[in-house]
Amino acid sequence: MIAAPEIPSEFAYTQDTDTRFSSDTDFSEDPDGRSANSTKGKGGKKGKKAAGEKGKGGKGAGRINGHHQENGMENMMLFEVVKLGRSAMQSVVDDWIESYKHDRDVALLDLINFFIQCSGCKGVVSGEMFRNMQNSEIIRRMTEEFDEDSGDYPLTIAGPQWKKFKSSFCEFISVLVRQCQYSIIYDEYMMDTVISLLTGLSDSQVRAFRHTSTLAAMKLMTALVNVALNLSINMDNTQRQYEAERNKMVAKRANDRLELLLQKRKELQENQDEIENMMNAIFKGVFVHRYRDSIAEIRAICIEEIGVWMKLYSDAFLNDSYLKYVGWTMHDKQGEVRLKCLTALQGLYYSRELNARLELFTSRFKDRIVSMTLDKEYDVAVQAIKLLTLVLNSTDEVLTPEDCESVYHLVYSAHRPVAVAAGEFLFKKLFSQREPEEEGAPKRRGRQSPNANLIKTTVFFFLESELHEHAAYLVDSLWECGAELLKDWECMISLLLDDPLPGEEALTDRQETALIEIMLCTVRQAAECHPPVGRGTGKRVMTAKEKKTQLDDRTRMTELFAVALPPLLAKYAVDAEKVTNLLQLPQFFDLEIYTTGRLEKHLESLLRQIREIVEKHTDTEVLESCSKTYHALCNEEFTIFNRVDIARSQLLDELVDKFNRLLEDFLQEGEDADEDDAYQVLSTLKRITAFHNAHDLSGWDLFTSNFKLLNTGIENGDMPEQIVIHSLQCTHYVILWHLAKLSEGSSRKDDMVTLRKQMRAFCMMCQRYLTNVNTAVKEQAFTILCDLLLIFSHQMVSGGREHLEPLVYSPEDSLQSELLSFILNHVFIDQDDDTNSTDGQQDDEAVKIEALHKRRNLLAAYCKLIIYCVVEMKTGADIFKQYMRYYNDYGDIIKETMSKTRQIDKIQCAKTLILSLQQLFNEMLSELGHGFDRSSSAFCGIKELARRFSLTFGLDQVKTRDAIAMLHKDGIEFAFKEPSPQGEGGPPLNLAFLDILIFSADHMYLERFMTFQMALQREDCWLPLISYRNSLQAGGDDDTMSVMSGYSSRGSSIRSKKTKEKFALALESSSSEVWHQSMQTPVMMPSPHLTSTAMRDPKRGRDDSYMGTPQHHQTPMDYNRRGTGLMEDDEEPIVEDVMMSSEGRMDDLNEGMDFDTMDIDLPPSKNRRERSELKPDYFDPASIMDESVSSTYASLRSG
Question: Name one GO molecular function term (predicted).
Fold first, then answer.
């Protein structure tokens, strides 16, 4: 048994943990030191060929399928058969075993060449090389046979024919050991040679050799673990038989059977010792070094297999000496490796029998597992949560409340797999304890059901989480594991309507609000069968079973809530928040149930309740919910349409009549109108506006009355703010509904003329309100005006709507100027200058965020006008020049606007960008004067802005050539535009502007303005011109001028491909030198120390510490502390070593390059250009801004 990964002192394979199997390792001695007979060990390999090998070697070697052939087709058949994966693997292995029994040297040579060919090497080991050369020499010779033009090898090649190669390769090794487990693996020849070869190959600097041999060695180890497990079982059975026989009475005891069992146990023990020696050799020779390899795939293979060993043969491997490797590797830099650690541990924690052996490991690495729930790789985070769920199942004492809370909040994660895994954890922790139901007792329902307390627990959790706007996310997270609980709507209704039982505490008002919100979310989830907004992964095709479940749920919820909704509305009629949520329920009903279920009286009751709510409330959200409910119920497909339509029409008739009457009185009273009159007008106008959003009220002439109201407000200037805002919104709806009718193409010409007049008159009205003293009114007018200009722009005639061309409206210059002024005065302001916040809440963070969100919407509305060419593109200069100053607030919007304008017209975009720089330069001159210091913050800020502008043009200089040229043309003209007051000998006043243009090059146009005398000037005042010319010359030397940039760009992609191909094949010793040479440039950060992929002796002069640092959220652990089983080995701590490859900053600088192997780099002359092209844009807002901000451009503002 192997209780620890230590090699017995009598084991002849290796003695030191850092020693490798070399080709001269002597396998000719058995574990007891006795020399093997002449047919065993390496002596047989070094001797003459056996008779069976004659005729198979020789110099008559040919090539088949591009590979060397020395032993006929047999040399290729093994690799080809495994590659095709069509034949039964057992028959392939049986054929090889027959060949081995006939001539083991020839068969073993075939097996060696099989591993060489599986590595992608074209070379073939000949019989002479096999007999006379050491392993290191053979591997060096094979390294020279690699195809330098391709870095691919069978394990990495894509394509259908290689799709199953890895599985076939692994299956071959497994079947080979299984078929040889009774004799051949104990002959001290075959396994010794294979292990020696794989150990040597795994130490190669060639990635293909290292990757393939490590996979083979790990699968070989797994197969040996199965053999050892079988031997262990047989030994236990034999021991029991021996003990049973020995305990018999002397007369009945069979001594010959005792001797036979004793001999069998001895043979099994010897075999077990040999297998353990082999496993120790593989573990010490391969695993201990490759689990910290520079290649993530290799590290992942090692961790995956050690997990298999611990699960299969727990008696030998499930101890701290092996578990520590998994624990250390959980700090790996690559998510793929961390993921393998977690899946390996899941297999162990899943078994309750193994949990007792994991106590020390759990206590040591629990904090790391908990921290991995926040891993940047979502797959890793999901598996970490699932692992904690398994830990929770095994014992409740391990995880502290703080550990659980760190998982609880993940139910609100936007990534659905993470949220679902956290939901399962939460469900196991909080809801696993249910009250048992007595057999034969009637099923308790409603408030008395077992789910009542669980639903209350859900409400308590939701409230304690303090994320009250995310109930839909909580429900979605718990849906897969707790759908039965969440769909117990009868219990929820009972908790809301029924009186509490004796001794039961009633729900508070806050808890009732939370329960109603959760109930609404469960209804929506059951009816729509897709996750909430922001968590979906696209539309998924539902199965027949899911569709049936959806229909059944909709039927059941309609039957329940059609009856319960009216009393719920009656009970909570005065509570706006509760009513708003309850009124959304009918949107998910199956309205046919009202007729088929004879529930018309409940429909009448519902309509009465909605009417009463409309009359009681003036809250916008409540009124919009009522409007949407009427819209959902007014479906012409159902028989209830007429009944609902009549109720809706009666309500609207009363509202419009009341509004017209109140408005007429209000306008007549003028300044004498009191607050009650204004309130009545406002409340009625709110109701009409809310209904006009979802319903076509064209039958009532609302435009005339609203326009009259707005016009009076302009003339008098004392109209209440909210009345104006809602009147603007209502008039906007009138215009949009009129346009919707005309878009159908069935209207008269008079309607077109009427809409055109109304639209233009309303736009002029909104323009007049831009100068209103009230900020909220101005913002409403600006937003509506931008929407109308966009809707009625030239793009409205696209898509076969040419008949709408008379409606196209282009804003005049004065209107464009006013819109731009509004943006500059109301958006680009400091936070403290925003006077929109009231009640002394300027310091309140929530108020500031809301104000910023409002300003972002205003800016987005105007930027859409630029993008869709409604206003001139040059107006964007005043927006673009704010890019640096307001980068945190609006950087993403401005950058996206620049990107869109560049796609529309590169030349005009370039002219706009240079115009923005010129404006900033003139502003600086007016403030600092012409004698300003070029090191001043203002001037450096303009230069930085110009540099960031240049980054937006991308790397393809051929496509942007004309735009860049135009940018420089305008810039040079501006620099030489104002002559020097000193005469011809002095520098132009704007000459310093050339300093701003030193981010790109175009020297041809510069010569038109330069004189011979200017070229000879060397005074400080001429430095901008000197620097600009020098930058152009440097650009010409570096890039062979921009004319050749197209070839450079195409060449870079070719070089990138060549780089990836050569990385995988070169020797690591030369890579470090070339790497350091290529990276020592002023703009690059210092390169990290790159060393061998294997642990070596100090005398080799290689640095073993090639690992990076842990992730920022990981807490380094003291792995050097002694005294526990996890620390007793003398291996280096993986927390310092396993973070392979380079630092994160090097990953950024070398984006797009394949540094998986660290084996070789391109020469500096080839790489310098490519690396400079691939440097990322560190100013991309996507790297620091929430993705949600980009949704500003997703759609036009709706009503």
Answer: chromatin binding
Alpha carbons 28 and 43: distance in angstroms, whole number: 6
Is pLDDT larger for residue 611 or for residue 978? 611
Return d(Cα 734, Cα 706) in angstroms, integer. 10
**Structure tokens, 568:** 């719920």
Q: Please say whether the beta carbons of 134 and 196 come within 8 A.
A: no
Res. 86: pLDDT tops 60? yes
How many CB atoms neighbour CB 1120 within 10 A?
Answer: 9
Measure the CA–CA gap between 857 and 941, rounded to whole angstroms.
27
Calculate the alpha carbon distances from 299 to 102, 268, 329, 645, 1137 in Å.
38, 34, 9, 68, 12
Q: How far apart are the first and last CA of the chain?
A: 75
DSSP 1132: P
Contact 1088, 1112 (CB under 8 A): no
| Single-letter amino acid, residue 1030 | N
Q: What are phi and psi of 35, to 5 degrees?
A: -70, 140
* Helix residue spans in 929-960 (DSSP H): 937-951
The CA-CA-CA angle for residues 644, 650, 655, to 5°, reads 125
CA gap 908, 872 in Å, rounded: 10
Q: Tokens for 821, please give them.
A: 């002024």
Report the SS3 class of residue 355.
helix
Residue 324: its pLDDT value, please?
93
Instruction: Specify the length of the chain in residues.
Output: 1199
Residue tagged 């919007």 (tokens): 893
Residue with tokens 């506006």: 689
Residue 224's identity, in one-letter code, is L
DSSP string, 520-576: HHHHHHHHH-SPPTTT--S--PPPHHHHHHHHHHHHHHHHHHHHHHHHHHHHTTT-H
- The pLDDT tens digits for 530-576 are 888 888 766 778 889 989 999 999 999 999 999 999 999 999 999 99
Give 1014-1063 pLDDT, tens digit per residue: 555 555 555 665 565 555 554 444 433 332 333 333 333 443 444 333 33
What CA–CA distance (Å, rounded) separates 54 from 127? 11
Cβ neighbors of 89 (< 8 A, separation 6 or more) are 82, 168, 171, 172, 175
Q: Is 29 helix (H, G, I), strand (E, B) or coil?
A: strand
Q: What is the C-alpha to C-alpha distance for residues 404 and 397, in angstroms, rounded to an integer?
A: 11
* 996: CB partners within 8 A, 6+ apart: 917, 921, 942, 943, 946, 971
36 phi/psi in degrees, rounded to 5? -75, 165
Spatial neighbors of 598 by CB under 8 A, at least 6 apart, are none
- R_g (Cα) of the chain, nearest Å: 40
Q: Indicate the pTM of the whole model.
A: 0.72
Distances (CA, A) of 492 to 164, 450, 1027: 53, 12, 76
Whether pLDDT at 597 is above 50 = yes
Nearest-angstrom CA–CA distance, 612 and 621 = 16
pLDDT of residue 218: 95
Cβ–Cβ < 8 Å for 876, 866: yes
1016 or 296, which is more confident? 296
Cα–Cα distance, 655 to 615 (Å, whole number): 10
Question: What's phi and psi for 621, nearest 5 deg?
Answer: -65, -40
For the stretch 423-461, pLDDT in tens is 999 999 887 665 555 444 445 666 777 888 899 999 999
pLDDT of 1031: 55
What residues pair up with 63 in beta bridges, in sequence order?
Answer: 68
Residue 484 region by backbone torsions, left for phi larger than 0, else alpha for psi between -120 and 50, else beta: alpha
- Smallest CA-to-CA distance from 660 within 595, 730, 721, 562 is with 730
Q: How far apart are CA 108 and CA 100, in angstroms?
A: 7
Dist CA 1002 CA 1000 (whole Å):
7
Q: How many CB atoms lie within 10 A of CB 598?
A: 9
Percent of the chain surpassing pLDDT 70: 72
